[in-house]
């Protein structure tokens, strides 16, 4: 097929005029007896910005204001569902792509919702009390703490559930978060970290009861603190789920100081941010088997720098102040 001949100035002017009247490229092509690709080429060539070539806007400021209300009230709806609601409430006839563009103009972006813990009044009161008791701890004080936790990694990272429409600064707003998440084939991992770097990583093969947990501490925690602290003092942080009497006796026998910790407080534990970093690193690798997933986790974990860990630990004073300001409620961390 030969090269298309350039359109005359007169034809280009007609294309622009018809476009300003609101005609689609297909209708313009039919009316002028030319191909749709020629219309598209002429429009692109004669304008530098999309907004100058988009023709008459199909929505008014009032329509856009109504869309903002709809989006705020239906944050977990898809673009198609929001389009249907918008057309129904305003009597407009806009497409899904128009709805998407207007949402972006209004500051909304489609994001995977953050997971926020459910806190009852008693838990919030204990969190607030704990934050005030430790509010004067400095970054240097927190550098003596070894943080620990378990996390679940799944093979199907792409299956993250429904997305949410939110604007900047709304990540942890009440209407923008989900309360729980279900996992496909996965592996549970225990890890620890301090301002000096990451510790030994343990892939848990069975339910973690008191005996199993103590074995994990003996095998993975003790070598970590010996390597990072030597003869220096440190404080160990753990989740309240591991509060069995035999575990307390184990700490007493080992002469290890354990930091009192408020229940249901992942936003206070810096290792949660570390898990998020590791998950982001391995997400694009798309493992298809558990052994491959484990290898990816171990590689990403070992690649975390001591500088990253130190930066996270230094955020502890800010985290406590955020809890105090929120009166014990969950925070953005």
Q: Indicate the proportion of strand residues.
A: 5-15%
Shape: elongated
In total, how many beta strands? 8
Please compute the radius of gyration using only Cα atoms.
28 Å
Task: Output the CATH homologous superfamily of the largest domain.
Answer: Ribonuclease H-like superfamily/Ribonuclease H
Enumerate how many helices there are, as a single number. Answer: 14
Termini separation comes to 60 Å
Mean pLDDT: 87
Q: Based on the coordinates given, report the CATH architecture of the largest domain.
A: 2-Layer Sandwich
CATH class of the largest domain: Alpha Beta
The CATH topology annotation of the largest domain reads as Nucleotidyltransferase, domain 5
**Uncertain segments:** 48-53
Tell me the number of structural domains: 3
What are the secondary-structure elements, in order, as H or E?
Answer: HHHHHHEHHEEEEEHEHEHHHH
> What characterizes the major β-sheet?
6 strands, mixed
Structural class: alpha/beta
What is the structure about, briefly put?
This protein has 333 residues and is α/β, with parallel strands linked by helices.
Summarize the helices and strands and which ones pair or pack.
Blueprint: H1 9-20, H2 25-32, H3 36-45, H4 61-73, H5 79-90, H6 96-105, E1 109-111, H7 121-133, H8 139-142, E2 145-154, E3 164-166, E4 186-194, E5 197-198, E6 202-204, H9 210-228, E7 235-237, H10 245-254, E8 257-259, H11 271-283, H12 290-302, H13 306-313, H14 316-325
Parallel strand pairs: 2-7, 7-8
Antiparallel strand pairs: 1-3, 2-4, 4-5, 4-6
Helix pairs in contact: 1-2, 2-3, 4-5, 5-6, 7-14, 11-12
Domain Tc1-like transposase DDE: 145-294
Pfam family, one: HTH_Tnp_Tc3_2
Domain Transposase Tc1-like: 66-134
């Amino acid at each position: 097929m030969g090269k298309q001949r350039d359109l005359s100035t007169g034809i280009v002017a007609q294309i622009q005029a018809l476009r300003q009247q609101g005609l689609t490229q297909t209708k313009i092509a039919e009316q002028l007896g030319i191909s749709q690709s020629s219309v598209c080429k002429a429009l692109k060539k004669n304008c530098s910005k999309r907004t100058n070539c988009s023709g008459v806007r199909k929505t008014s400021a009032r329509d856009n204001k109504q869309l903002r209300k709809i989006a705020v009230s239906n944050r977990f709806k898809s673009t198609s569902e929001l389009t249907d609601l918008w057309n129904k409430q305003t009597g407009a006839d806009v497409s899904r792509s128009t709805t998407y563009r207007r949402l972006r103009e209004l500051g909304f972006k489609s994001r995977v919702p953050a997971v926020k813990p459910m806190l009852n009044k008693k838990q919030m009161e204990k969190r607030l009390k704990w934050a005030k008791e430790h509010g004067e701890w400095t970054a240097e004080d927190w550098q003596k703490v070894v943080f620990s936790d378990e996390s679940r990694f799944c093979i199907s990272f792409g299956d993250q559930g429904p997305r949410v429409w939110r604007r900047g600064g709304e990540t942890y707003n009440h209407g923008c978060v989900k309360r729980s998440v279900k996992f496909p084939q996965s592996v549970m991992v225990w890890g620890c970290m301090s301002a000096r770097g990451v510790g030994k990583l343990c892939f848990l093969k069975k339910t973690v009861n008191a005996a199993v947990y103590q074995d994990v501490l003996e095998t993975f925690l003790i070598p970590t603190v010996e390597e990072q602290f030597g003869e220096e003092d440190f404080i160990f942080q753990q989740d309240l789920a591991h509060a069995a009497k035999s575990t307390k006796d184990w700490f007493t026998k080992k002469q290890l100081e354990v930091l009192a910790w408020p229940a249901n407080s992942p936003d206070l534990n810096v290792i949660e941010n570390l898990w998020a970093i590791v998950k982001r690193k391995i997400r694009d690798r798309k493992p298809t088997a558990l052994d491959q997933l484990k290898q990816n986790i171990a590689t990403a974990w070992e690649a975390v720098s001591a500088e990253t860990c130190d930066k996270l630990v230094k955020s502890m004073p800010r985290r406590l102040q955020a809890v105090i300001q929120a009166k014990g409620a969950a925070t953005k961390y």
